Amino acid sequence: MENRYCVIMCGGVGSRFWPFSKTAVPKQFLDFFGTGRTLLQMTYDRISSIIPARNILALTNERYAPLVKQQLPDLDDEQILLEPDRRNTAPCIAWSAYHIRAFNPDALILVTPSDHLILKDEEFRNSVVRGFEFVRDNRSALLTMGIKPNRPETGYGYIQVGGKSLDSIAPVKTFTEKPNIELAKVFLESGEFVWNAGIFMWSANAIIDAFHECAPDISMRFDKGLGKFGTDKETEFIKREFPACPNISVDFAVMEKYKDVHVQCVDIGWSDLGSWGAFYEKSPKTENGNVFRNCKTVINDCQNNIFAAKKEKLIVASGLKDYIVADNDDILLICPLSEEQKIKQYVNEVKANFGDKYL
After folding, report:
1. Torsion 110-115-116-118 (CA) sign
2. Calpha distance 69→73 (Å, rounded)
3. What is the pLDDT of residues 148-158, one digit of tens each?
């Protein structure tokens, strides 16, 4: 286990969960399901038994350092890498690899988001252990986790598996990012595609080599810091170089271009919790299909709604069907579930009309 590391990415804003997820406290820092643990803490709990605590890193934006320290008290300050600017996943993953390799050239790394839901923890841990074995034995390989789709979903990326079975680790043939509904139906019917879970595994050397090959505009930035990672010069170097990195995901920068990419097809009860609709799907429901979060209700003839509030607010409703009703402090959102994709648009309109007060 000494060579196993985990990087928990926890710097996102989560605007599709507005008004509960705000810039000051994004969704990864919230207890969405009333378990007493936030999504970030659940992520840490999930991997802490198979990866030494000293080898777990949290990578986040500078403004969220106090929240990470509060919610993950087992991490030392040195285990929290603070991005001076948001540059998407490729630069932060590159930095984490250079940082970890400075301490352990033989490191094997799991990279996981902090805001996903995984219901089958034991299956997840078994998949991670198997993935570590694979990237240990295939030193140039990059591995991503894939989820067998159960519907034609347009909000996820898809991976075409280069094999006859979706039950094993196989080469990746193609990546497709968020197809339209017609193409998503074709993918589902073909049986050759899985959803891209955005959970990655590789050796530190393999991902750095992949950046050199596929994204040299990123690797050249971090190559300047060789000899500084893991020292007191690293923070100053990152503050100077990190904001100059391109704003790009690791999927576009590396995974879609690299020669040795594999996918591990897993059944781990996964959801990216990317929207209120995903939250509705994974939440317990009443006989009428309603979901309640932290609120008292008096409802009549209401079906398939989300009622969410804070501070035990009473919600009285009648005749609602397929709606989101979310009350958070000084914001009330009432929106059809079918139009949840417009929430980002609403957030932009709120910002244009009222500034950052409600964000």
Report:
1. positive
2. 5
3. 898 888 888 99
